[in-house]
Amino acid sequence: MGRRPTINDVARAAGVSAATVSKAVNGRYGVAAHTVERVLEVVEELGYESSLVASSMRARQTGVIGVLVADFEPFSAEILKGVGAALSDSRYDLLAYSGSRQLAPEGWERRSLSRLSGTLIDGVIMVTPTVVNVSADVPIVAIDPHTGRADLPTIESDSFGGARNAVAFLAGLGHRRIGFVAGRPDLRSSAARDAGYRRALADAGIPFDPALVAVGNYEQESSRDAARRLLGRADPPTAVFAANDLSAIVVIEVASELGLDVPGDLSVVGFDDIPEASRFSTPLTTVRQPMGQLGAAAAEMVVALMNGEQPDPTHIRMPTRLIRRATTAPPAALRETA
Fold first, then answer.
1. What is the spatial distance between Cα 83 and Cα 59, in angstroms, rounded to a whole number?
2. Which residues form the HTH lacI-type domain (predicted)?
3. DSSP bridge pairs for 141
4. Residue 312: how many CB atoms within 10 A of its CB?
5. Which of 149, 251, 295, 331 has the most CB atoms in a 10 Å sphere around its CB?
6. pLDDT tens across 92-136, in order?
7. DSSP H or E run through 190
8. Distance CA 219, CA 194 (A)
9. What pTM does this model have?
10. Dist CA 82 CA 86 (whole Å)
11. What tens digit of pLDDT does each residue of 284-295 get?
């Protein structure tokens, strides 16, 4: 046979239906033992054993860990790098999967899990899942879930502390009108950054002004609209804290369009420290969250679960750190009077 054997080839050679082959391969009920044995023999004869599904049927393991993401964007890309690095010397392969959110914008994880678990993967890492109350035949770990801590193991960064430190830094430079380009309202870590922003203002004795907050949703176009609203005001902020680096970069681009110098007229701080942050034309001051470490820790946790171990602790919050670069300075008014 000059091509790779298919399930239909196995079915014909074994004298059964493709559905029966599928049941036998996946270890499902309803197939007699002697039929399963015959299917296995044909799998070996035809070379179908090289397929992931066939090998999983015999060993009840695929040797693959799945990472489910809503989108392939900078945050999830860095998470994937961390998972890959942690698994590089292990016996496990990595499968990155992003299903269509148009069919299930909320609860996309359930649809992805139903497609992958039990046949293609031995364990799952879900990145920023909308729901964590999901069931699967394999262990699950969630990174930065929308709802925060859950019954299943979760890993996240200290979004509240990172945002608080960022805004406290701007206040320490002398800024009193500090704008905020917020992230996605449905994401718990985004809410934590909002809370950190407000706490830092209160700590500095700066009244909270809702007019200085605009939602960017972690997306470029939404952040562009938010930046234009903030910077186009008659009394614009002298500094902006953005809930992620992509939004911060967009703020700098809009400032340039409006003839504002960064950091001369406007200071900007982001959150994440994606690779683009340090490579930008004006290197971005930002809050570094350990995205690679988040991925590595999730990989170690899911492998432990797959080996029958119970991770301790099951809920991890990793520290963040302010990285000072070239987009922040004291406000112009202070520099002029100095």
1. 24
2. 5-59
3. 125
4. 7
5. 251
6. 999 999 875 554 556 677 777 877 766 688 899 999 888 777 777
7. helix 188-203
8. 16
9. 0.79
10. 6
11. 999 999 999 999
